Please model this.
Amino acid sequence: MKARVFVNLKKSVLDPQGKTIHHSLQSLGYRSVNDVRQGKFFEISLDPTLSADQARAEIEKMAKSVLTNPVIEEFRYELEAVEAHP
Amino acid sequence: MKARVFVNLKKSVLDPQGKTIHHSLQSLGYRSVNDVRQGKFFEISLDPTLSADQARAEIEKMAKSVLTNPVIEEFRYELEAVEAHP
Model:
């Protein structure tokens, strides 16, 4: 089981890193860019014996308690079953 | 038009940041985690007058030339049409 957790700053929080990238892109001639926000993601391989429900519970717990700062960040995640090849 | 560009280290490149997160998670009791790799993403708002083809070309150009280091990183992206509300 593989999970991807995407973490980004809440809409209401300023993103100076994104602003810097936006300015760089504009100064390099990418005039069609209106805004840039940066985030991070985690690709997490989970024990294949976990059920989808268990995996979901684990991922939500670790996303809330470790991977994000809930004051300024929010997350979403996706689960992907990885086929076991014998 | 909104684009999301996901950048991660190539499989062959060591990810010490991911390893550190993996160890932290394990020491916090998340024993079902087998591996963690970290990446980043960019949420890019594009000029809504661009066609999907133009947007794709722009995004690929900036992903290759600015957003990734092609020696150690690879990227993928998704485009999302944003409805214009008059």
Summary: The mean pLDDT of chain B is 92. The longest strand of chain B covers residues 33-46.
